[in-house]
């Protein structure tokens, strides 16, 4: 009996150590592969749709030497702003351009593949895509000054928010946005010390706070990837909210096929254009 009772603590200790090692392993794998999970570049490249013959291929070089490849659809206009799109983490830039062009065929539309997303070169990171958005904007303005509306989808909402924080835009449209990437990471990895491990930061709420830019929010009520509660804090800090629309029965991925999404996007651009000068440089 003594041998049995003395072996019980050892069995318990072994179990605890096993669980601790398993937990440490999961945390380590999550930490090591967070960039691939956050920026699944090859997945986006595999879903690259064909562009129409009218599309124009764009290319520029970043200050640190990487190549960014983009697409332009539609015609330049002095009457309507350029729509500059930033897609979700698994989105292909060609799909972003096609989506916006389908919604707004009378607008000039441009989208670039994120750094590290083929055919763009380099390695993706939050810091890199933030910097690249500024490079893209400045390059386009050097070519021809024009009014720009940034449209960010999912993680692209963080990129668009950073752009509006540093540059003057005609408008900002955030689709399924989050208040911060750190808060979103806690939603999905509540069991891990995300505050210590997260290497990529997108504090969207800080970037849009008190900005005068006309801004529209479009949220999916059944979103499980970016839950609607992660968009909610943005409402209280955006001072010029021209549209706040939640599509209650839409999820993160089926939102774009929802008729209410089409209507909301067109209303958002129309509201922004009301506030823009009649003649756009």
Give a description of the structure.
With about 280 residues, the protein is of the alpha/beta class. It has helices at about 1-30, 35-40, 40-45, 95-105, 125-145, 155-165, 180-190, 195, 205-210, 230-235, 260-275; strands at about 55-60, 65-75, 80-85, 110, 150-155, 170-175, 215-220, 240-245. Strands 1-2-4-3-5-6-7-8 form an 8-stranded mixed beta sheet, sandwiched between helices. A hairpin with a 5-residue loop joins strand 1 and strand 2. Helix 5 (about 125-145) packs across helix 6 (about 155-165). The longest helix is centred in the N-terminal third of the chain and has 31 residues, at about 1-30. It is globular, with a radius of gyration of 22 Å. The N and C termini lie far apart (about 90 Å).
Mean pLDDT: 87
Task: Give helix and strand order, one letter per element, not per position.
Answer: HHHEEEHEHEHEHHHEHEH
Question: Helicity, in percent?
Answer: 40-55%
Q: Order of strands side by side in the largest beta sheet?
A: 1-2-4-3-5-6-7-8
Estimated radius of gyration: 22 Å
Largest sheet: 8 strands, mixed
- What is the end-to-end distance? 90 Å
Beta-strand content: 15-25%
Structural class: alpha/beta
Poorly predicted segments: none
Number of strands: 8
Shape: globular
Helix/strand layout:
Layout lengths: L1 H31 L1 H5 L2 H6 L9 E6 L5 E7 L8 E5 L6 H11 L5 E4 L13 H18 L4 E6 L1 H12 L4 E5 L5 H8 L5 H4 L6 H5 L6 E6 L7 H8 L5 E7 L11 H17 L6
Parallel strand pairs: 3-4, 3-5, 5-6, 6-7, 7-8
Antiparallel strand pairs: 1-2, 2-4
Helix pairs in contact: 5-6
